[in-house]
Amino acid sequence: MDTLDAHVEVSRKAHNAAEVKAGLLDILLKCAGLDEALRKRSAAQRASGVSVRMLAP
Questions:
Q1: Cβ atoms 29, 35 nearer than 8 A
Q2: Which residues lie closer than 8 Å to 35 by C-beta, 6 or more apart?
Q3: pLDDT value at position 9?
Q4: Distance between the two ends of the chain, CA-based, in angstroms?
Q5: Contact partners, residue 21, CB within 8 Å, separation at least 6
Q6: CA–CA separation, 26 vs 43, rounded Å?
C-alpha cells in the first residue's frame, strides 16, 4: 500500500466515524447558523405556498 492509498483509507474511516459526523453536523447547525437559515427558508416557502420536501440522506 502506498502513501496515497493509506491516506485515503484513513481519511475515509475518519469521515465515516459517528463522532466526526456528529461534530460536523454540530458545526453546521450551531456555529454556521444553518439551522436558522433552514428554518427561515422553510417558513418563507410555506408562506408563499411552495411545498417543502425533505431530501433523503
A1: yes
A2: 29
A3: 92
A4: 32
A5: 15
A6: 22
